[in-house]
Amino acid sequence: MKIGIIGGGAIGLLVAVHMASKHQVSLYVRSENQKKLISEHGVTCRDLHQRVSVYTNRENLNEQELIIIAVKQHHIQEVVSNLPSAPALLFLQNGMTHLSAIQSVPNPCVLGVVEHGALKVSDYQVIHTGYGSIQLAVHHGGVNIDSWVEGFSEKEFPFKKRESYWEMLTEKLIVNTVINPLTAIFQVKNKEIVENDHINKLAELLCEEACRALQLSFRDQWARVCYIAENTGENMSSMLKDLNEGRKTEIDAICGFVLRTLKEDDAPFHQFVLESVHALELINQKGGAS
Q: Where is the Ketopantoate reductase N-terminal domain (predicted)?
């Protein structure tokens, strides 16, 4: 299959290096420097090394059979406004605000949740820091997910079908809205969610608010949050990585979604962590400008 991947971050590189073993992959990135390095070195992940076509414009995008969108939430609107109308689209984002952006997209749309951990160490190198699966669910359009699962899956990089995209995304959102902001604010690895009693209490309160907003079982979701925090204990959350590297975070798409679902007075802990992360973003911006 001809597959285009928009986004040269950790997830874009990880998906590219695995899928290029069986498919014709084109990677669409922002910077000319990243394009040059990938053209010279390919994409590498430990002992995996794959050559892919790489572009900084929309060249050949209309020739792709599938376009995987692996950019941050705040780039979604820009990306979907300039897509060819024929290929199927697969969205791999944290948060849920992209749901409104794809409502009017005519292409068949599939939503995905990435359970893998990935760390981008250079413009062409990524480290696979945690193993899981990529879960897929149809949002709209006629897509045979079963054929994707069979055609994309590898032993260490499986794809799984989910019947409900809403259930799939809300379960991931609960985890992200607890682990991401707290690890970002306190500058700690995921394991502190369960090992530090004070952070653990804050995590529990955030989980309770999110479960009320999304009408999910607190008992079940809290158990999932603790399990994932423990099993990805040495990982650094994507929000902490974004802060450390001076990038805009996805706090509005994650905690902001919960706040928009509940009134601010009903989600004081989400309000606090949202403002705290934005404050850290601003501090980083001022530090970079000085």
A: 3-138
User: Is 51 strand, coil or helix?
Assistant: coil
Residue 48 sits in the same domain as residue 69: yes
* 74-129 confidence digits (pLDDT tens): 889 889 888 888 799 999 998 898 898 898 899 999 999 998 888 899 999 999 98
CA–CA gap between residue 225 and residue 58 (Å, rounded): 39
Q: Where does a domain end: 113, 129, 163?
A: 163
Neighbour-count burial of 31, counting CB atoms closer than 10 A to its CB (0-12 exposed, 13-18 middle, 19+ buried): exposed
| CA distance linking residue 91 with residue 136, whole number of Å | 9
Taking the C-alpha atoms of residue 156 and residue 130, their distance in angstroms, rounded to an integer, is: 10
Q: How far is CA 48 from the centre of its chain?
A: 22
Q: Which are the contacts of 44, defined by CB distance < 8 A and separation ≥ 6? A: 17, 50, 124, 125, 126
Tokens of 34: 């990243």
* pLDDT tens, residue by residue, 136-190: 999 999 899 999 999 999 988 999 999 999 999 999 999 999 999 999 999 999 9
The answer to whether residues 112 and 95 touch, using CB atoms and an 8 Å cutoff, is no
> Of 163, 195, 221, which one is at a domain's C-terminal end?
163
Catalytic positions are 172
Residue 60 region by backbone torsions, left for phi larger than 0, else alpha for psi between -120 and 50, else beta: left
> What is the value of pTM for the model shown?
0.89
Burial of 147 (0-12, 13-18, 19+ CB in 10 A): exposed
Distance CA 159, CA 152 (A): 7
Paired residues of 113 in beta bridges? 135
The pair of three-digit structure tokens given for residue 288, joined into one six-digit string: 């970079």
Q: How far apart are CA 10 and CA 24, in angstroms?
A: 19
